[in-house]
Amino acid sequence: MTNGFDRRDFVILAGSATVWPFSAWAQRAERVRRVGLLMNFPASDPEAPIRAAAFLQRLAELGWTDRHNLRIDYRLADNTNLQYAASELAGLAPDVLVVNGTSVLKAVQQATKTIPVVFVNVIDPAGQGFVQSLEHPGGNITGISNVESRMGAKWLELLKQVAPNLTQVAVVRATGPGGEGGIEKAIQAEASTLGMKVVPFNARIEAQIEDAIASLGQRPSLIGPQPLQRGNTGLLVLPGAVTRGFRERIIELAARGGLPTIYPIVILSPAAG
Q1: 161 near 234, Cβ under 8 Å?
Q2: pLDDT for residue 150 is more than 70
Q3: 106 and 63: one domain?
């Protein structure tokens, strides 16, 4: 949970600067505002400097700088200590908690019902019950999401257009059954329309991802009750902390196996091009 980094190196999912509530604080308050950040990015993730730079730049444009009129308490945590990190940050009584990802938001939701929480990159937040609706979130949680349930159907539709011979799709999910809210239901409904079979499999560690993709049509016990035959199988990778962290490996394995694949979000390291 401890990050071992200077505060200036913290990582936060960017892309949501335009909805930050800080813009409502047009007049600087004399007291220093306190922000708690909880992230599940590994320190070595190549997205870290890009997203950190964008976040800090936007805060500076709004007149908020760390160690001047803003104090940032942050933690890097994985799935084994998310709840501890969330409780620790909530115990500091910040003015707002900022989180990225579904699993992080779940941990923070259990840690506090009163501290304002702003999230980014949560899959189908209304469908999962984090907010009442996108228009009127209610409660102490708000934020921005670039993935909602209907997009699952569109991903499968696009995959089928690229590879019309597909009759089945292996869906890589990182959060377990039900973790993607209504997105898997949308995929299943679209698959029925397209005459396709959906076989989801969980991928929480890199070894599971490697075994599952490499074993399509060979070792069905790793991915589901029925074997998937090569040549008519596609791969649909759902967004999530695990699939994001192993994205380059997934891309490599899918390309090696000749699997038509669709990825909702792909950001490669500079070395990978």
Answers
A1: no
A2: yes
A3: yes
